[in-house]
């Protein structure tokens, strides 16, 4: 079976992990953790990085840092992996779901603007000017754009909208290490960005995340909150409710080795994306995810749409090509059925019903790429 997305571990992973084991620095205090978070922040062009256990934990902390509470709304796209929404719910906040753009599958910015303009109003709360949803009387605190599949929408417009409507941006950049919009890296457009390094990401630590920000106070607070909010190095004195969210050294050691190889991996991923687009163009009724002008995606997980998605999915999995359907839209899940969903034509439903992800591992070989394409063509020719 050609796997959907597995890590490529060809560098110094063993050497650095052995170093952790040999020295006994296996927990959260080792030097690889600092090194890893610095490497990720530097790569993304952010001033600070804070490593945490996974991307979900990072998204949770990011919201706490910006003061999101149960009295707030956080805006998210209706198509994302469940973790985005779970992280919002951990804070007690209520999501506002925005339908996605039919071409690029990112949050539809026209719908976002329409919602903010017509369904929210400006108020002053706790001496701050903010936007409040007129139907719930809750403050709309932040937008959490998701760079779905490593693609990236018009972030300049998103930043402008956030400014106009007094909102923070927390970027769910978990899938977007390496992706840029007008040469600015994903995760650096808002107050905070979060990357994930779980098993299927472009590079992996097994499980892991890094929060990035340019704000020193936010970075310090993130470090504090992810390490049980302990005030003193010696005494067990804690000044607020903290979390045991810090990444451990053994996993960060893998991360350092992965970051060393990242430029090469990114190049290969983008070449894979070009290969699939060239060779699947015009096959059956396949349609590709559009890349917005100015965007340079990382090519994380190749996904296309076709009216015969379910048939193709079964065929590929039966013929040695591991493939997956897309995420069920959030508004269709039991937990979010009653949340506000802003849509005109429910694009999310059709994207979900037609989209399929195909093998996209960092180390996919030319032979495997050819096999994937041949198998897809054979399906449409049968
Ligand atoms: C869009 C999105 N958000 C959040 C996450 C959560 O990241 P993690 O698995 O590291 O918790 C992931 C990845 O799994 C993701 O794809």
Automatic annotation (TrEMBL):
It holds the Pfam family DegT_DnrJ_EryC1. Keywords: Aminotransferase, Pyridoxal phosphate, Transferase. The modification N6-(pyridoxal phosphate)lysine is found at residue 201. It comes from the Bacteria. GO terms for molecular function: pyridoxal phosphate binding; transaminase activity. InterPro entries: DegT/StrS_aminotransferase, LegC-like, PyrdxlP-dep_Trfase, PyrdxlP-dep_Trfase_major, PyrdxlP-dep_Trfase_small. The active site is at 201 (proton acceptor). GO terms for biological process: polysaccharide biosynthetic process. Belongs to the DegT/DnrJ/EryC1 family. This is LegC family aminotransferase.
